[in-house]
Amino acid sequence: MNAESDFNEVVADTDYAMYIVTAAYGEQRAGCLVGFTTQCSMTPPRFLVCLSKANHTYTVARRAPALGVHLLGQDQHELASLFGESTGDEVDKFERCRWKVGPEGVPLLLDCDSRFVGSVLARFDLGDHEAFHLAPVHAHKGTGVRPLTFQAVLDLVPGHRAEEGSG
Length: 167
Ligand SMILES: Cc1cc2nc3c(=O)[nH]c(=O)nc-3n(C[C@H](O)[C@H](O)[C@H](O)COP(=O)(O)O)c2cc1C
Prior knowledge:
- The protein contains three helices and nine strands.
- It has helices at residues 3-12, 56-61, 77-85; strands spanning 19-25, 28-34, 37-41, 46-52, 66-71, 99-101, 107-109, 115-125, 129-140.
- The chain has a seven-stranded antiparallel β-sheet with strand order 2-1-5-8-9-4-3.
- Flavin mononucleotide is lined by residues 30, 32-36, 50-52, 55-57, 84-89, 150, 153, 156, 158-160.
């Protein structure tokens, strides 16, 4: 019995919605596919996003006042691939998708109409990821997407491996 490998097998069977998280700082823009998220309070409304320290997105997000959180629909596997399999260290993902500048300067993806902007209240070191504690300051409800979930993107190969981080 190995607790870590058993744990990995247990969580591999779970399923949850996938998001694209975006950030901007100065002229820099970043975004990546994220599965480690959860709402963590109802009153007041709060949300947690966990970013790998290896990701380009983390290097921008740690300086950003707010993050954009975009829910993906089942038909958006291609957008998930762009943000999950390539890195902003090598390509400008924002040249390959439709977006606009939103509240707090956050890049908003126009093809994701269920989304919110969260002001960063605090960050917590979690190991190879860091948690961003968000308070929603702007939200837009789309037409009711059926979420793209973790089990539907298991074919994607992350643009960065988490263990490349400093954590
Ligand atoms: C299924 C899947 C889930 C992922 N979940 C997360 C996550 O929760 N947090 C994170 O920081 N990266 C996650 N990633 C990895 C990033 O999306 C990926 O490494 C991306 O290429 C990083 O881009 P960047 O370097 O431009 O930030 C996930 C990737 C995949 C394929």
